[in-house]
Amino acid sequence: MIEVVEDSSLPENGFIETRIKTDISNISFSLPSSLPQSKPFLCCTSHSLNILNCCVVPSESDVVIEYSFCGVLNGAMNLDQFGVADTFFGSFPIICVYGENAEGTLNEVFQRNVTSNSKDGLVAAEERGSIFIQNSEFSSCTLENCSIVLIINGNFVNITNTDFHSITRQKQNGACLCIPSEDNSEAVSVNVSNCEFVNCGVESESNGGGAIYVCSEDQSSLAVEKCCFTSCHAP
After folding, report:
1. What is the pLDDT of residues 90-148, one digit of tens each?
2. Model pTM?
3. Nearest-CA neighbor of 35 among 15, 56, 63?
4. H helix or E strand, kind and range, residue 31
5. Quick one: which of 206, 196, 198, 209 has its CA closest to 231?
6. pLDDT tens digit string along 73-102?
7. CA 125/CA 120 separation, integer angstroms
8. CA 107, CA 134: separation in Å to the nearest integer?
9. Helix/strand/coil for 212
10. What's the rounded Cα separation, in Å, for the pair 225 and 222?
C-alpha cells in the first residue's frame, strides 16, 4: 500500500520522483537489477519523503542492483523502520543525500548481509548534505571499496545508539564511517555517541581506520562519546 499525502507519479521508466510531500508505508520493494535511466528508484527533489515500515529485497537471487534506492536532492528524507537484507548493490549507494539543504534521517534501520561494489558508501552525503542515524543496526556487510557511511564535502553527521557488527571493507579506509580529505571541501561536524563497533575493519590497501576514518584539513570536527570498539582492525 502506498499512502500519498498529495499526488505523486510512477513514470513508465520505473522510478518514483516526488516534488511534493509524500508518505510511503508498508511496502516490500522488489528491485530489478537496472532501470532505463540511472536515477534512484525513489528520487526526492524537494519537500519531504517519508518511508515507514518498508524493506528492500532483490527481484531474484544473485541480482546486482545498479542504482540507488533513494536519492535526496535539496529535500528531506525520513526512513523509519526500514530494512535491507541479502542484497548486492553495484556502483551506487543505497541512499544518497545531495545538496546544501538536503537531509536524510534514518531511524530503526537495519542493513544485514549487504554486499556493495560502490565507492560512495551504502549511505552517502555529498555537497553539504546532512545525515542523521539513530537506533539502527548494520551487520555482516561486505564492501569492496566503500564504507557504511561516506561523507564527501558534507555538512553535519550525527550517529547515535547504532550497532555496527562484522563490517568488512576490502580496500581503503574506514569500514563504518569514512570522511576522506577532498580539495576545496568545507568543514564537516561529526558526532558519534552510544554506538557499538564489533569486528569491523579493512582488509588491505589501508592507511588506517578500521571502524572510523576521518582525514581533514578543513577544520572538520569529530566527537566520539560513550562508544565501544571490540576487535576492530586495519592492516
Report:
1. 888 999 998 888 999 999 999 999 999 888 889 998 888 899 999 999 999 999 888 99
2. 0.88
3. 15
4. strand 28-31
5. 198
6. 888 999 999 999 888 998 889 999 988 889
7. 9
8. 5
9. strand
10. 10
